[in-house]
Amino acid sequence: MKALVTGGAGFIGSHVVDLLLERGWEVAVVDNLSTGREENLDKRAVFCGGDVCDAVGLDAVFCREKPEVVFHLAAQTNARTSLKVPAEDAVTNLVGSINVLECCRRHGVRKVVYSSSCAVYGVPVGLPVKETHLLAPVFPYGCSKRAVEDYLWVYRELYGLDFVALRYANVYGPRQDGRGEGGVIAVFADRISEGAALELKGDGLQTRDFVFVKEVAEANLLAVERGSGKFLNIGSGKETSVNEVVSLLSRLSGRVPEVRRGPAVKGEVRRMCLGVSLAKEELGWSSRVSVEGGLLETMEWLNKGRGR
């Protein structure tokens, strides 16, 4: 089968590409390399460049590659950035996604597997957060992700375009960029490996649901044949505090970092943990990699990249 992966040179997308190739798929990738890296890509994938915000160029890729399934991961993924430039966030995440859906409709794509986010929920009323939880995002990023989910439903009802929307918890692992405003694990792992101080927002007791990137890639592939029209949480189903992450990274690296504490970020969710039973029921998927095991593989990847 032929797949098109938008954002396929990025952190999560490149792992999806790897798994597709391993399973015998033909793969084409659209990525403007704003955050992705071409070196993340297996040479067997067809790299088309491009940008989901370029409707004409995107249509040309669909016309040439003729994908049966589209894995849509291209996005502006930083919640804090969405506060600074909400219009840019909306253009990439919403308008870009509509361009993808229009191409899927015109070119007879069978199914879209969409990378959504637990940011659509906002502040949890209770834990774990299930798919039936109120959708009340507190960042523009969550708003754009929620809006795309609505469009997916509309395109299914109007045009018969099947989809699965995967609401990711905090994904981490090899290839995540620790520079700038990356995920907390990537930033901390990168700085610890360099012997640099950690900048910690708040008291560190805030919790997140961390899920390993290779397991997220597996969920994407399972969604090709299962979960029709569903919105599914993809997480570990466990809470881990930021302080616990620092402690684990310190132990695994053998380094005790200097920790500089700053004020908490206004509007950030205090605690998060996803209910993941529906993903197991619909996809046969569940997380099996512990945070410690995933961090160990992440640190090994970082150290290998630095020649240690």
Please characterize this protein's 3D structure.
The protein has 308 residues and is of the alpha/beta class. It has 2 domains: 201 residues, NAD(P)-binding Rossmann-like Domain (Rossmann fold, 3-Layer(aba) Sandwich); 77 residues, UDP-galactose 4-epimerase, domain 1. It is built from 10 helices and 13 strands. The strands form 4 sheets. Strands 3-2-1-4-5-6-11 form a 7-stranded parallel β-sheet, sandwiched between helices. α4 runs parallel beside α5 and α8 packs across α10. The longest helix is centred in the first third of the chain and has 21 residues. The chain starts with a strand and ends with a helix. The mean pLDDT is 95.
CATH class annotation of the largest domain: Alpha Beta
Quick one: overall form?
A: globular
Terminal CA distance? 39 Å
Order of helices and strands: EHEEHEHHEHEEHEEEHEEHEHH
Rounded radius of gyration (Å): 19 Å
CATH-level-4 superfamily name of the largest domain: NAD(P)-binding Rossmann-like Domain
Question: What fraction of residues sit in β-strands?
Answer: 15-25%
**Mean pLDDT score, rounded?**
95
| Protein structure class | alpha/beta
CATH T-level topology of the largest domain = Rossmann fold
SS elements, strand count: 13
Name the strands of the widest sheet in spatial order.
3-2-1-4-5-6-11
